[in-house]
Amino acid sequence: MEYYENILHTIGNTPLVKLHKVVKDIPATVLMKVETFNPGHSIKDRMAMKMLQDAEARGDIKPGGTIIECTSGNTGMGLALAAAVKGYKCIFTTTDKQSKEKIDLLRAVGGEVIVCPTNVEADDPRSYYSVARRLSTEIPNSYWCNQYDNLSNRTAHYESTGPEIWKQTDGKITHMVVGVGTGGTISGTGRYLKEQNPDVKIWGIDTYGSVFKKYHETGEFDEKEIYPYITEGIGEDIIPENVDFKVIDRFEKVTDKDGALMARRLAREEGLLLGYSAGSAVAGLLQLKDELTPEDVVVVVIHDHGSRYVGKIYNDEWMRERGFLERELCVRDLLNMK
Ligand code: PMP
């Protein structure tokens, strides 16, 4: 018989898939690390497992306890799967900008979800960080994972994502491109890859409305960089402990519109139904295409599955309301055309 002991053993070892049509203007080979093959359909399963294993090893959470996390959805999904197998309860705080699908999914896997306002500062008592922190002090035998500052996050990628990419590319990778939120993925994977070959370039994808790019370039935390944006999962209004700026060579900002449109192209032209930030990552790579040569091997690490966004970027009405898609011509428009 061939089987896994439980679903958590299926985390990792995701495929690399070559892109064709959407990168026809890029001279390099572009490979996607398709993390949707994880059981929670996102890369975050890796670090959720690791944060929990490390907390268990330290005795920070005991059987029957409650896992608390502030999450845009994917980390919560990974934690909920692990909690179901290991017998923990889960409470997730999230923000009101996250897609309804993500919130419904967290509830489907047994999580209690508290939706907090998006546009308040991180230290506001109503923010999703503050609510998670407070709950962890009030609920006995609870553990707040805090993916932003918990370094088990980036260690998970140092131990798994990095070695997988190095092995799969036979050490030929020249560039890694990935969206940055907590910074765990880019910092852990990037550190591993740079240890194997210091010439590998690590490019982080940021959003307009986030502090990363400016902070990386100037060392200045500029509050003027912070304003509301629509892209989910990347960009921050804080500097998380997990971001290791030393391993990141550059940040590139991508607009909400360009990320959304590229995600749609990936689905329709490459058969890859992926999340919003995957579109941002590929759109960001296209913005940097002049820096690449035919010998380069680029790995774009994508975070999550497109099913989480069917009511958003894959919904034409939602796209049109935000000015991301032209309105379709209707019969009246045609009749009015001269
Ligand atoms: N994309 C999505 C959809 C995410 O959920 C996240 C996690 N916030 C990221 C990108 C960024 O990953 P990381 O937190 O490892 O920087």
Automatic annotation (TrEMBL):
Cofactor(s) annotated in UniProt: pyridoxal 5'-phosphate
UniProt keywords, alphabetically: CBS domain, Pyridoxal phosphate
UniProt-listed GO biological process terms: cysteine biosynthetic process from serine
Keyword Iron part of the UniProt annotation: no
Keyword match Cell wall biogenesis/degradation: no
Name of the protein described by the UniProt record: Cystathionine beta-synthase
Section of the entire sequence shown: 1 to 338 of 452
Source species, domain of life: Bacteria
Classification of source organism: Bacteria, Pseudomonadati, Bacteroidota, Saprospiria, Saprospirales
Record-level Gene Ontology MF annotations: transferase activity, transferring alkyl or aryl (other than methyl) groups
Family per record: Belongs to the cysteine synthase/cystathionine beta-synthase family.
